[in-house]
Amino acid sequence: MVHLGFDDTDSREGLCTTWLATEFVREFGDWDLIGYPRLVRLNPSVPWKTRGNGALCLRFGRGLGTPFTVGEIAGRSIRAFNRGRPAAVDDAFEARVRSVLERGCAFEDPMTHPGYAVLHRRPKASLYWAAVRRIVSVEEALDAGSGCGRTGGYKEGRGRIGALAAISWRPRDRTYEVLAYRHPSRWGTLRDVDEGSVIEMDRRFPSTFHNYDYANRTVVLAPRSPCPVLCGIRGEDPSVLPDALRALRTEPVDRWLLFETNQGTDDHIVAKPAMVPLTSLAVGGVVVSPPKTLPGGHVVVTIARGRSRIDCTVYEPSKELRRVARSLLPGDRVRAVGSVRDSPRTINVEKIEIIALAAAEKTRALAVGWYEPAVSARRHLSKPLSRVGGSRWPQTMAQGRSGSPGPRSPHSSRLHQGIRGSA
After folding, report:
1. Does domain 175-261 have CATH number 3.40.605.10?
2. Distance between CA atoms of 267 and 51, rounded to whole angstroms?
3. Does the N terminus or the C terminus of the chain have fewer Cβ atoms within 10 A?
4. Residue 355: pLDDT above 70?
5. Structural domain boundaries of the chain?
6. Ranges of H-type helices in 305-422
7. pLDDT at residue 388, as a whole number
8. Separation in Å, CA 301 to CA 290, 319, 336
9. What angle in degrees, to the nearest 10, is found between the helix axes of 159-168 and 126-133?
């Protein structure tokens, strides 16, 4: 196969790297698409990311077997094959890649530094694991891709890191997302997505997730930025996602594409951690003092791990997770999952496991188990507690899901109850 990776083409003010994937699919209609298009999220703590730090990978060749539908562009069904024969890449192929990039990148943004890779074989998977968990330099990425094919960049060419890392991804766990795009005439205007239809779709398709925040009555599947995306539906089963999209009542969809992704996998989390800024970790300890509420509503919990004292901060956008943090007492044993902030040195909490509760005179409002923030405050990579299969925390998350009240009903408690299981 020919592996095409690209990254760092958008800006906070518009465009979208996934939308550019649809332009590449249209441009290379004389080739066969092999497998699903891939949306690969990388280290969420990278300071120069635009929005979700997502890189893209498309694989082309000459398809073998029966094709399946992965999208629709300009009224044409986009089909992909599970297998394919290799095909040679020449200078003309790379020239076409550069042509698509040059008409679809936000070059005017000083933070945008596009890059691409056209490879005949993949770099080692270690490049992906480095790029999803820490800071990787352009030089390190190019060294990993040496001998694999061609790369190119614009301005500082930082997008070559994501391009090569996306190609190197070999999924241990995966989810899917169908992304629908707006007609260009509507970019930058308010999106028309009917809230009631989102709730109906969420109930009808239980393998999907992160559609609607019932606690705060907010549609989550539609972005708020002025990008081309109308909405995105994430799920475990790719076969139902096109039907889920059609179940929504929205403005006209200009095009759509179904991606294989690493979203909701916790791939960014290091299980044996060190407090290194701009990385993400899971760290356990004992609460040593009553939680503190800071101006703005942020809550800080200090835990002891051996001789170390570690501050864990639950920020205001996490909403109900702050209530869990405020309810902790000295002596509670917990595990915090999140990214390390440099100054002040703290863990920005993505979710919390209560492993054991200290004895107290009164009945505690908490239970042993996992707690996560409001749906609207979750990171792309953070694994939701509702996900089935592939859990990195099998003794608690996997055992407790069936007993969780879940997010499916708008009448459920505003506080996601602890998922009960063995500690």
Report:
1. no
2. 18
3. C
4. yes
5. 2-168, 175-261, 269-403
6. 321-326, 399-400
7. 54
8. 7, 16, 10
9. 130
